[in-house]
Amino acid sequence: QEAATKPNVIILATGGTIAGAGASAANSATYTAAKVGIDKLIAGVPELSQLANVRGEQVMQIASESITNENLLQLGRRVAELADSKDVDGIVITHGTDTLEETAYFLTLVEKTDKPIVVVGSMRPGTAMSADGMLNLYNAVAVAGSKEARGKGVLVTMNDEIQSGRDVSKMINIKTEAFKSPWGPLGMVVEGKSYWFRLPAKRHTMDSEFDIKDIKSLPNVGIAYSYGNVDDTAYKALAQSGAKAIIHAGTGNGSVASSVVPTLQALRKDGVQIIRSSHVNNGGFVLRNAEQPDDKNDWVVAHDLNPQKARILAMVALTKTQDSKELQRMFWEY
Ligand SMILES: NC(=O)CC[C@H](N)C(=O)O
């Protein structure tokens, strides 16, 4: 009878450090990711059963740097199936932290549900001293099972904070305080209870025009990194490999070196979409026609999306339109 009053939360496991194991408790940085199965992870946190009726599903078991577009689609489809089920109140996804921000943003764009979807990882394997995975997972289940988390888009619970899956990014690879948003967290989880302070302003989930059920495959979109003395080799190679769009991971406000500008103009004339983003560490802010004449060049700006998030939106957007003005609208709205 008690079970009937608790929310039903499904944990979809994909691997990462939260499922990692090292040789000794002193190994906080040297270990193997994606080793421990979801049933063992759940059994390791018996307190989960006080929060929700929890069931686990092993969707894949990989380190997240190896996640492919096919993996993203597979995960997205499973999330949608579960979200459609009236027996499911919330979904948690355990994930490696290297590309967690990409998966969280992808799900933000394509899942048509107001049920909580929470992506979670850890910075230390469960075998390490002061492992952070147990509490991160406990917090994820608490948020996924809560009514207040409904309609707030895809969320990420790391280091006691509730972050927007759209905004959050891995900012450092050694601290447990690794995930930050340039615009701040949405809330906090303390002792299994969530405290909210702000809401996402961009279109997401229920309000999104994209739907995982309509997406058969994702187009090839690549990223080229900018730096002093850069040349156009990477851009040309991406175009030759069939990229439909190239994310310019630009310096500063998405600035483009004079050695690269003519190549990007020519690639755009050949039909490749050029999307200017910034790789500055704390979050870029790229505006149209500032620094480069985007109207004249028919380029798109990624605004505050970092290069890896810009790739996700570009892929999803290109399943709907090939028009650069439509792409730009989407980059403002999502
Ligand atoms: N902290 C982590 O999860 C990193 C482990 C691994 N590189 C991954 O992303 O899966």
TrEMBL record:
Active-site feature positions: T17, T97
Binding site for substrate: S64, T97, D98
Stored NCBIfam families: asnASE_II (TIGR00520)
One Pfam short name: Asparaginase
Keyword Signal part of the UniProt annotation: yes
GO MF annotation terms: asparaginase activity; glutamin-(asparagin-)ase activity
PANTHER family registered for this protein in UniProt: 60 KDA LYSOPHOSPHOLIPASE (PTHR11707:SF28), L-ASPARAGINASE (PTHR11707)
Reaction equations catalysed: L-asparagine + H2O = L-aspartate + NH4(+); L-glutamine + H2O = L-glutamate + NH4(+)
Protein name, as recorded: Glutaminase-asparaginase
Entry's family note: Belongs to the asparaginase 1 family.
Lineage per the UniProt record: Bacteria, Pseudomonadati, Pseudomonadota, Gammaproteobacteria, Pseudomonadales
Domain Asparaginase/glutaminase C-terminal: 220-331
Gene Ontology BP, a term: asparagine metabolic process
